[in-house]
Structure to design on (210 residues):
């Protein structure tokens, strides 16, 4: 099916109310400095936590980069490891104010079905993370914040150029370096190692389909 290596996009988020340090912002910077092998192109971007601009930002990235695989990372303070999100909800139900204090202007995220499944190889990702001794948990609700919004927009192919064959979302806990007293905080080295495992699993799945 595929005749070339994949183009992979990874996204993280900037800080937002209640999260003065976002581990996925640091993750994106490190991954750009340490891109994976076996890809045609790789890009990691940090997204602003703003409802009003997120679709346009993803469209700009999509047009510029045309990713085949989109792996989105976000912070969830309550999770205890790499939380693999199975489903995006096409709804802003339960939305909280973004970093500018704004709420979404619509009840739905975009046109399309009410729920969209992740198309990342989640079982393979979980197996490899667990094999590396990294904590894994599962979720069928990506929340009511920008994490779910980005997951939905990407999975629904709702942004220009952003039509990935594989798309999905992974939540991570706070950084141990920033919040040493948080019971599930993760060291930056473990976060980066886990992200590389997620990316490699997606590359391998792409190659299986080749």
């Amino acid at each position: 099916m595929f005749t070339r290596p994949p183009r992979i996009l990874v996204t993280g988020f900037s800080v937002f109310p209640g999260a003065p340090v976002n581990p996925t912002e640091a993750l994106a910077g490190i991954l750009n400095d340490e891109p994976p092998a076996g890809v045609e192109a790789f890009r990691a971007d940090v997204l602003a936590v703003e409802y009003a601009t997120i679709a346009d930002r993803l469209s700009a990235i999509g047009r510029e980069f045309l990713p085949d695989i989109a792996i989105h990372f976000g912070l969830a303070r309550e999770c205890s490891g790499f939380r693999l999100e199975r489903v995006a909800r096409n709804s802003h139900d339960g939305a909280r104010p973004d970093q500018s204090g704004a709420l979404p202007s619509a009840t739905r995220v975009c046109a399309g079905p009410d729920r969209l499944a992740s198309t990342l190889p989640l079982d393979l990702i979980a197996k490899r993370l667990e094999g590396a001794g990294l904590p894994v948990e599962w979720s069928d609700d990506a929340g009511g914040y920008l994490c779910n919004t980005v997951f939905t927009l990407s999975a629904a192919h709702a942004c220009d150029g952003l039509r990935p064959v594989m798309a999905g979302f992974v939540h991570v806990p706070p950084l141990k370096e920033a919040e040493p007293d948080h019971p599930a905080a993760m060291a930056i080295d473990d976060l980066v190692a886990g992200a590389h495992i997620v990316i490699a699993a997606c590359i391998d799945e792409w190659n299986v389909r080749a």
Remarks:
- The chain has one domain: 7-208.
- The radius of gyration is 16 Å.
- The beta strands are 7-13, 41-47, 69-75, 82-85, 87-89, 115-117, 136-139, 166-172.
- DSSP finds five helices and eight strands in the chain.
